[in-house]
Design brief:
globular, two-stranded parallel sheet, alpha/beta, 6 strands, Rossmann fold
């Protein structure tokens, strides 16, 4: 987000080490072409009590967070609270089918410390988000090429670092994200409705 001109991008996470690493990476990119003049900040904060006033942001993005939080209802309420009326929120969580396969393949995966505490079905997620005062206007699946990677990790063991097949697949995903070749983008688009790793919901906060 910080690459967009005339945008103030604020990142928040509860893990101080992750925030520190994010800050370091953003500082490295600050002076790269297309990033000069960008305004950004990062903060350690609990999503259940965000350190921002009501109606602060023009856009809220909650990416792969809800599945980690026990009190997800209050988390959603906070996310909507800091969003301005009539503005958009984007929420992504692991899709039900790919995530259920991961849980089936590996006990280690589903019992990881600070890992996923639930699997969302699409309608249940929409109902949860809309209960906080937002209206859904689009839903789609994304990142289908990431799904086989996580299935492979679960098969060999999520904490295993020396699997050649898993590491090669990871290299492929990094290459794809950096280069955006047409062939892999086409395959990703084709497979998203079937094995998309993430479900993405777009909502608009209702007027006061």
């Amino acid at each position: 987000m910080f690459r967009f001109k005339e945008v103030i991008a604020i990142g928040v996470d509860i893990n101080a080490d992750d925030v520190k690493e994010s800050k370091s990476r953003l500082q490295e990119q600050q002076n790269q072409k297309g990033c000069d003049g960008s305004i950004w900040g990062v903060s350690v904060a609990d999503m259940l009590k965000l350190p921002f006033k009501d109606d602060t942001f023009d856009l809220v993005i909650c990416s792969e967070v809800m599945e980690h939080i026990d009190d997800h209802k209050n988390a959603v309420t906070e996310a909507v609270r800091v969003l301005k009326p009539d503005k958009n929120m984007v929420v992504s969580v692991p899709s039900y089918f790919p995530e259920r396969i991961c849980w089936t393949l590996s006990k280690e995966y589903r019992k990881t410390e600070d890992g996923h505490v639930r699997i969302y079905k699409k309608q249940a997620l929409i109902d949860l988000l809309e209960s906080a005062g937002a209206k859904t206007w689009k839903v789609h699946s994304a990142h289908s090429l990431h799904t086989p990677y996580w299935w492979l990790k679960c098969l060999v063991g999520p904490s295993k670092k020396d699997s050649r097949l898993v590491n090669k697949y990871h290299d492929l995903l990094v290459w794809d994200m950096m280069k955006h070749p047409r062939l892999t983008r086409w395959f990703d688009h084709l497979l998203n409705p079937i094995i998309g790793k993430s479900t993405v919901v777009y909502l608009r906060k209702k007027s006061a």
